[in-house]
Amino acid sequence: MKKIAFLGLGNMGGPMAANLVRAGFAVTAFDPASAAMEQARQAGCASGATAAEAVAGADAVISMLPSGAIVRDLYLGDQDAAGLLQVLAAETLIIDCSTIAADDARQLIAAAGERGIRAIDAPVSGGTAAAAAGTLSFMCGGDAAAVAAARPLLAAMGSNIFHAGPAGCGQVAKICNNMLLAIQMVGTAETLQLGVDNGLDPSVLSDIMKASSGGNWSLQKYNPYPGVMEGVPASRGYSDGFSVALMLKDLGLAMESASGSATSTPLGALARNLYQLHGGDDDTLRLDFSSIQSLFRRPVGD
Ligand code: NAD
């Protein structure tokens, strides 16, 4: 499998496609944004003028898109245009890495299967830094043979490849992980604020908790308190990370799943509400999700 089409060359897709090129795959890219296309060309991708042109002759199609509606329109078609499933050859492998609803993933995989096209859902964890470093974690849903066929491609972009279960299970794993991440980040932020408001240095408190039973990923890798950790969004004004908007999307998907399965997720619902309260304007929605720390900071002198 050598000829790859890559659709959606944004913050995640751009570096993922670049890693495929580095690993020796011939990648043809398509993104409606000209800046994204220019970066893809600089990374060594060929370019398609349309998605249909980019997928012509491809052994595999990888997509990294913002929403389920866009994924559905692209592959299944909308009122104005036929979807890519109409033009892909049987045996083509679709790997959709976008974070979308599990039901959307199942619909795509079933429709592809009816045409003899193999498809898996393979959302990722790790963010833009892992996308650039080629160390993403992939959570795959679909049949075992299709996941096995995708492995050499995924291995060029990531270091962990999990087969979560049948179609849609990758998306379920992804929203479970991100719901826990949101809960843990909110808990870490309010705890750090409690320590600071009671006279502790946030770096000292972080070191203590990292080595104690409160230790968690946010403290280890992604401290939300400004100035505690170098190289994380909190130390650059919460820029260039995983946006509040994307976290809200994932928490919305988690709440839809919880509602569908009648599962009680009180902490997930609370985390979603806190993120909604925090992301009240467009500027905040663009900030990294660890900016939830600012919800707990009190004005000086308060
Ligand atoms: P992004 O907005 O930076 O990139 C999305 C790209 O898709 C854009 O360049 C856009 O022009 C392009 N696009 C839109 N419609 C298209 C179409 N019809 N055909 C081809 N391209 C199209 O978003 P991102 O941060 O790269 O995120 C992509 C996906 O990865 C999302 O589903 C997100 O939830 C998920 N994700 C993001 C992160 C992160 O840290 N940013 C981490 C894990 C998962």
Structure, explained:
With 302 residues, the chain is an alpha/beta fold. The chain has 2 domains: 3-166, NAD(P)-binding Rossmann-like Domain (Rossmann fold), CATH 3.40.50.720; 172-296, N-(1-d-carboxylethyl)-l-norvaline Dehydrogenase, domain 2. It has 14 helices and 9 strands. The strands form 2 sheets. A 6-stranded parallel beta sheet has the order 3-2-1-4-5-6, sandwiched between helices. Helix 4 links the parallel strand 4 (60-63) and strand 5 (93-96). It is globular. The termini are far apart. The structure holds nicotinamide-adenine-dinucleotide. Nicotinamide-adenine-dinucleotide is lined by residues 7-13, 30-33, 36, 51, 64-66, 70, 74, 98-99, 124, 127-128, 242, 246. This is 3-hydroxyisobutyrate dehydrogenase. Belongs to the HIBADH-related family.
User: Span between N and C termini?
Assistant: 62 Å
Total beta strand runs: 9
CATH topology of the largest domain: Rossmann fold
Shape: globular
Contiguous runs where pLDDT drops below 50 for at least 5 residues: none
Counted up, domains total 2
Helix count, DSSP H or I runs of 4 or more residues: 14
Pfam families: NAD_binding_11, NAD_binding_2
Domain Peptidase A2: 192-274
Enzyme class: oxidoreductase
Keywords: Branched-chain amino acid catabolism, NAD, Oxidoreductase, Signal
